[in-house]
Amino acid sequence: MAFSSTAAASTAAAFAAGKKSVLIVNTNGGGHAVIGFYLAKDLLAAGHAVTVLTVGDEGSDKMKKPPFSRFSELTSAGATTVWGDPADVGAAVGGAASFDVVLDNNGKDLDAVKPVVDWAKAAGVAQFLFVSSAGIYTPSDEPPHVEGDAVKESAGHVGVEKYIAEQFGSWASFRPQYMIGSGNNKDCEEWFFDRIVRGRPVPIPGSGMQVTNISHVRDLASMLALAVESPGAAAGRIFNCVSDRAVTFNGLVKMCAAAAGAEPEILHYDPAAVGVDAKKAFPFRNMHFYAEPRAAKEVLGWRSSTNLPEDLKERFAEYASSGRGQKEMSFDLDDKIIAAA
């Protein structure tokens, strides 16, 4: 792809104003894609030049779903959107393109991310950011997870973080957990709404007092944006990219029901006794899984804006308008749990 003279002039003006040119390498699936979308909007609003490279083909069926179906919101604000293979970033973005910052919001292991890192280093990129995962922490008897806690050395994200640290002086890694927000195409709160609006019990493994963390994606994007604007403070740091409040499974059911204007019916069960795999029957890890954003608060001056009860009201309004609550759905695993319980 060749950049137009208008785009080049716009980028030059951005540099003259002290702004940065940022490349976001964005996944084409899963929950992380929406992080890149929100970050692009934040950076554009702050006057930075943004290019979003999405993995794959612009004409694929995946691009008909959010957040990709909303990319016009980015281009209308001045972003450049391209599609291609992260293994050959230069071909995807055009040989004349230059960037101050690259964010990899796609790869989960070194095979996927190393070509992006190597290209960025050879191209003279000043700062490299990586969206990792809080799932790499080893289970702890002393929650919450904080930056510096032990991680699973075999996890692909860990290898990526180590390699980036070897290649860049100015780098940072961000470890998100579960997220909500308009444009997310991976079920989170929708799983609960699906049952609540149909008057079905919500099956919760165990006592329901397991603690987790659910963040609005705007919080994750705002943390990443601060790292772009304060590279010195962010350099060489790991950040738990999460909100600063925990929620229990039972509490989440109650909040979702309140957002839907309904009374919740919670059904607790023992997965082993019922004979179901909790990983398939429930959208979250059946354990305490909670990280805190201590480094972002201390180093970047970041503050969370997630207000889960209010954010879920916003999410239910979009859920209701989508018509999903009226669609035919099967609840085979739920029915097995209900019958056994």
UniProtKB/TrEMBL annotation:
Family matches, as Gene3D superfamilies: NAD(P)-binding Rossmann-like Domain (3.40.50.720)
Highest taxon, organism lineage: Eukaryota
Annotated ranges, domain NAD-dependent epimerase/dehydratase: 30-241
InterPro entries xref list: Epimerase_deHydtase, NAD(P)-bd_dom_sf
Cleavable signal peptide: none
A Pfam family per the record: Epimerase
GO aspect biological process, one term: monosaccharide metabolic process
GO molecular function: UDP-glucose 4-epimerase activity
Name of the molecule in the record: NAD-dependent epimerase/dehydratase domain-containing protein
PANTHER family with a match to the protein in the record: CHLOROPLAST STEM-LOOP BINDING PROTEIN OF 41 KDA A, CHLOROPLASTIC (PTHR43725:SF6), UDP-GLUCOSE 4-EPIMERASE (PTHR43725)
SUPFAM superfamilies: NAD(P)-binding Rossmann-fold domains
